[in-house]
Sequence to fold (137 residues):
Amino acid sequence: MTTITRLIQRRVKASGKIMLALVLMSPFFALGGTGSETPIENIASIAGEWGGSGKDRAGNSFSITYYFQEDGSFTCKVDLGFKKKTCDGTLRLNNGKLEWENERSIPYIVTLFTGEEGKRSLTGVRADGVTWTVKAK
Fold:
């Protein structure tokens, strides 16, 4: 085995360990909500327009606006900069958090945070690493 091959193998092993650590720690960094985590007691409590921003898997920023209905249905508008898209779905409440799957069956988990003066924000984490935080408008 050549020296270059050994160096490449070491770097791959090291980067694999770093990637594993990042994946394991990502829930702690992804929850960018401000304030303290607040269980969602019913879907109607978050009904309305929420807007903010997020980051895709590559670290690119995007803006997003959600329109949540009391019955759990929602629509959204996403501006990726180079294109705009929309989404829709139905929320489920599970252990004080919201859940849904997008059209490609990728699950989302959304956590409510309540900050100073009762200001609320929702932080979403998608299973493939996309994250976003929106505030009630």
